[in-house]
């Protein structure tokens, strides 16, 4: 843990820097000048040296895609390895902030600097906005010293990069670390193929909840669409409609042709333990891998990091079951 002296602020868009347009709030450039002006007026502003880089295009994070994660990863690695920054603050919209934090946790494994993501629920220009509080609070965290790795800072809380979800759409304390059970055999060593220098390709991934009324044909249509990896959101401890033989067969044949399938719990405090119920065991027998207590965001980001690195399904499944950075 050490204080950061030369920070990069990576501005990706989001409400924090948005301006009103005839269509509603939209991303806007020029945030560096606004930030320097605000901090210049504060008697007790954080003193660390910083530079700001804008991503292009700036996004409402509702538009975030895998290629944007890869562009963020490139910008962060370049900031550290080429420009010599010793910490990175990512300004991001809140809609997919937890998704990006989780994805970056895996894409930046082993990066020897702290990375913090923040944003705000109201634009920096709005009365009573949380923008400057979140921004200054995040800057202070860098001054105080942070562990290497990816974390979120929001409404006074420092949160784990891949155990956090957005729980509230209208409150300032929008994010929380979900209290899911952790079974955590930490991977002894991260191989180079999973480290921050590894280049990745986009991967065709999908998330599907089970629900009363889910048909084998729904799943078949999804799995026949070219999907390479599926996050199946199961009930409680990892159950689903296991009396539906056709549905089990759809899952089984997808795994046989190389689709990686992982199971998370739909319960905010849930953990997949297939053995608890016969209904869970039957799902596992199709080839589903347990994501333990991982969040939806973490399961998606980890699938992307593993399959995007070009691992075959068997290798990806082995790494998926290990704890790479506290996600399980
Ligand atoms: N739609 C906005 C975004 O995610 C919401 C926000 O930033 O709070 O970019």
Which structural class should the secondary elements be placed in? alpha/beta
Give the SSE order as H and E letters.
EEEHEHEHEHEEEEEHEHEHEHH
The counted number of beta strands is: 14
Low-pLDDT segments: none
Shape: globular
Mean pLDDT: 96
How do the strands line up in the largest sheet?
A: 4-1-5-6-7-8
The molecules bound to the chains, other than polymers, are: aspartic acid
Biggest sheet character: 6 strands, mixed
Which helices and strands occur, and which strands form pairs?
Blueprint lengths: L5 E8 L5 E3 L2 E3 L4 H10 L8 E11 L6 H16 L5 E5 L5 H11 L6 E5 L12 H14 L4 E6 L2 E4 L3 E3 L8 E3 L27 E5 L6 H8 L5 E6 L10 H12 L3 E6 L12 H7 L4 E2 L5 H13 L4 H8 L8
Parallel strand pairs: 1-4, 1-5, 5-6, 6-7, 11-12, 12-13, 13-14
Antiparallel strand pairs: 2-3, 7-8, 9-10
Helix pairs in contact: 2-3, 3-8, 5-6, 8-9
The site of aspartic acid has 11 residues, from loops.
Structure report:
The structure is a single chain. Helix content is 30%, strand content 21%. The two termini are 23 Å apart. It is an alpha/beta fold. The protein has helices spanning 31-40, 66-81, 97-107, 131-144, 216-223, 245-256, 278-284, 296-308, 313-320; strands at residues 6-13, 19-21, 24-26, 49-59, 87-91, 114-118, 149-154, 157-160, 164-166, 175-177, 205-209, 229-234, 260-265, 289-290. The radius of gyration is 20 Å and the shape is globular. A hairpin with a 2-residue loop joins strand 2 and strand 3. The chain has a six-stranded mixed β-sheet with strand order 4-1-5-6-7-8, with helices on both faces. It has a four-stranded parallel β-sheet with strand order 11-12-13-14, with helices on both faces. The protein has nine helices and 14 strands. Residues 13-15, 60-62, 93-95, 119, 121 line the site of aspartic acid.
């Amino acid at each position: 843990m050490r204080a950061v002296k030369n920070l990069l602020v990576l501005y990706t868009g989001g409400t924090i820097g948005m301006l009103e347009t005839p269509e509603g709030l939209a991303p806007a450039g020029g945030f560096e000048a606004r930030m320097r002006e605000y901090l210049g007026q504060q008697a007790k502003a954080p003193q660390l040296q910083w530079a700001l880089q804008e991503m292009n295009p700036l996004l409402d994070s509702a538009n975030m895609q895998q290629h944007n994660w890869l562009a963020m990863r490139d910008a962060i690695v370049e900031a550290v390895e080429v420009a010599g920054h010793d910490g990175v603050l990512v300004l991001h919209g809140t809609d997919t902030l937890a998704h990006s934090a989780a994805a970056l946790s895996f894409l930046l494994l082993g990066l020897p600097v702290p990375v913090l993501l923040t944003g705000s629920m109201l634009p920096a220009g709005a009365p009573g906005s949380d923008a400057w509080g979140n921004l200054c609070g995040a800057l202070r965290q860098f001054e105080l010293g942070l562990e290497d790795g990816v974390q979120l800072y929001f409404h006074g809380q420092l949160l784990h990069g891949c155990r956090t979800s957005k729980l509230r759409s209208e409150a300032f304390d929008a994010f929380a670390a979900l209290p899911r059970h952790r079974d955590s055999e930490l991977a002894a060593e991260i191989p180079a193929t999973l480290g921050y220098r590894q280049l990745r390709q986009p991967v065709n991934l999908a998330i599907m909840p089970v629900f009363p009324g889910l048909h084998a044909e729904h799943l078949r249509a999804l799995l026949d669409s070219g999907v390479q990896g599926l996050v199946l959101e199961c009930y409680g401890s990892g159950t689903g409609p296991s009396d539906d033989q056709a549905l089990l067969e759809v899952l089984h044949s997808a795994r046989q042709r190389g689709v990686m399938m992982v199971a998370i719990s739909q319960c905010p405090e849930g953990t997949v333990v297939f053995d608890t119920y016969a209904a869970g065991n039957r799902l596992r027998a199709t080839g589903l891998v347990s994501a333990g207590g991982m969040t939806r965001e973490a399961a998606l980001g980890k699938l992307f990091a593993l399959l995007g690195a070009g691992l075959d399904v068997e290798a990806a499944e082995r790494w998926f079951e290990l704890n790479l950075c506290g996600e399980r």
